[in-house]
Amino acid sequence: MRGLDSADLLFLCLTFGTLAFCAVIANIVLFRMLMRAKRSEEAAQGWSATQGLVLRSEVKVRQGLNDDSNFPYVRYSYEVAGKTYHSDQIIPGGEISDLTTYKVVQRYPAGAQVTVYYDPHDPRKAVLERSSKFSNNTWLFIIVANIMLCILFPLIFSWDLLK
Fold it and tell me: Do 22 and 70 have their domain in common?
């Protein structure tokens, strides 16, 4: 291991500190998003059910900075206490990932009769599925992998300076 001069040490500290700070912020944001989705999912477990009709079902494209991503768009109507409502929310607390987009659109074709779960206190809030199909183990894996990357990446990045 060679000796670090003050410029190398300053660079290492600034680099590692900046990456660690960004990782902490990213993990806080991720954790809050996961907790919000989990709370929404838990709340939806107690929602009432009614029959609905799929009005529109298609794959849409969201344009990002670096690439585009697909997402399912399913618009449906349902009736509660004689009043008709419309929604396009599929799962509570979020969106469906790019990986399952086409399966969702196939599962809910236009014209299909579907079960709609709605909030009895606010019937405008409704979903087609009460849970996101992600298990607690999946969320745990995502969080652990994220934390490991946040720790390992700065160490690997600064390895040359430590030699």
Answer: no
